[in-house]
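Here's what a typical entry looks like (Acyltransferase family protein):
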Amino acid sequence: MTSASLHSRKSPESQPAGDASARNEERGGNAENSRAGSPETGRPKERDPFFDNAKYLAIALVACGHAWEPLRDGSRTAAALYIFVYAFHMPAFIIISGYFSRSFTARPAQLKRLITGVAVPYIIFEVAYTLFKRVANDDPTYPISLLDPWYLTWFLVALVVWRLSTPLWKIARWPVPLALAIAVLAAVSPDIGDDLDLQRVLQFMPFFVLGLVLKPEHFQLLRRREAKLLSLPVISGALLFAYWAAPRMNAAWFYKRDSAQELGAPAWTGGLMTLALFGCSTLLAACFFVWVPKRTMWFTALGAGTLYGYLLHGFLAKGSRFWDWYELPWLHTADGMIALTVFAAALVTSLCTPPVQRMFRFAMEPRMEWAFRKDPAGTARSRTADDVRPDAQRTPVPAGR
């Protein structure tokens, strides 16, 4: 990687696949990721392991993709796997984020969670990444800019914008076609600029809107055995196409950070590629969901900590470039690539664990009660609930009830 690319805020590896549909979507008690407990017992709702599994597997693919990125020039296999994974891992994460945003109506409690769980982590990590770059890359003058996200933080900006726009998409008659039209216009508009990474926000937005319109029954269809059988030829064909396209295709199309003209292509290709990649990415994301386990697995609990793995692994991913770790010839062999893949998956797995979550919760999920006015109506509702259901909170639930 050249020094010019390291100084750019639009580096290829800044493309996550990750949610980060952070824990905020579930913290509000969304029914989409839980099965409601008995209103009489007051039992807490249960998380659906399918979505936690999907988020963990997606974030593992994020880390693997970042590990493969420097290997692409010397390995067609690495380049093909990189293209294949980048075609769906980010769309899958964004679809999940949209799905868990369906109940967002900009209520005070929801806005508070959006600020503390997405906006504040963006500010903290934008500053932290910039300071890290200054030290690790010996670039002491590199500026801190909250309007120009660097590396992984762009996704947090996008999530804030998308979620705030949710009420508008919910009243639109044809939300997905409208979002696609906006994405097409962005793809042919080179003057949009870098502020808030607006190109990515607009070009990835159709996947968020698609998640908003999906219903539980759509995911149920993907749990059928027939869906697995149908996905096999799709995945096989996609891998073969990625291997063919690796030396011929500009992978920057998958980052959606530039217009067609900025990629050196005619303007009309921007609209065509936007529509083609939306169809391709949606199909591959569906195939990914088909193979996500539906039952509780050893990694299911880690799905609640994917934002931690996403943001924290970026320091090592970037550091490996700054410190020239990829200069080691062995890493560019088949054994080296396998070892890197295992290491990347293990690293991000460790960063999603509860001890790491407890250590960095101050930055990822700060409570910040001091920053918000108390909601008298919410306090009154809470008191009313306590008065009406005292037994539900103090009386043990009989076994088997």
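The mean pLDDT is 84.

More examples are in the samples folder.
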